[in-house]
Specification:
Number of strands: 12
Distance between the termini: 77 Å
Number of helices: 1
Helix content: 10-25%
CATH architecture: Beta Barrel
Oligomer: single chain
CATH topology: Porin
Strand order of the largest sheet: 1-3-4-6-7-9-10-12
Order of helices and strands: HEEEEEEEEEEEE
Number of domains: 1
Radius of gyration: 36 Å
Amino acid sequence: MEMRKLLLSAVAALILAPAAANAADLRMPVKAPPAPMPPPFSWTGFYIGGNIGGAWAHHNFHDDFFNLGFDDGNTNGRFIGGGQVGANYQINQFVIGVEGTFDWASNNNNNNGVGVAVPGSVPLEVVRITSNDTWIASVAARLGWAVDRALFYFKGGGGWVGNNGFTLTNVTTGTSISTSGSNNVSGWLFGAGIEWAFVENWSVKFEYDYLGLGSRTFTATGLVFPRLAGDTFTTGNTNVQMFTVGLNYRFNWGGYPGRY
């Protein structure tokens, strides 16, 4: 009899043990799996955007006959506005890229109030030179250092300025002559800026650029200035400084690609 009771107890224990374990498991709190980490932010991708700002142009002129000097110094700032397109590639915290820009410039005729007397002219002749830069374009490489959504960068490359010509005015008589055709000139560009991605695909940038330009020449005719007939005028120390604020829309490669 005792042996039978022991066998029944053992069988009952074997049957009830899994149920008790399952009941204990049901009483234990279930811990939710940890939320996945968001992918790291990356500047890699193409972008397109617009910009507005100001530009300060400097020109001086001299002629071959009398070495007349026309120096307008730094002109008042002029409004510029346009767009940019480019691409970035991020390697750890380094960001390399290339960018092209094009901006229209508001009318910026310079040296309007400065006249220079022609030596030996009787009666005395006073002449003045004006010019107007109409657009600014650039293509440059960018090298930056990313701190999450902030990008500090330098850029360097080449630039072009479109000019609608030069006008030589005889202030004494009111007559003038103008060059015709394009007077575009090229040079080198250096700049620096900071860009901040304030939402997933949009970023804003603040940038300063210095554009050093080559010289341009034009020749006066004798119809307006008999004493200056055939005289060649040359620009020198020509540069443009620009400060712009830009807004970019970035087309990321595959959302937020990880850093490599």
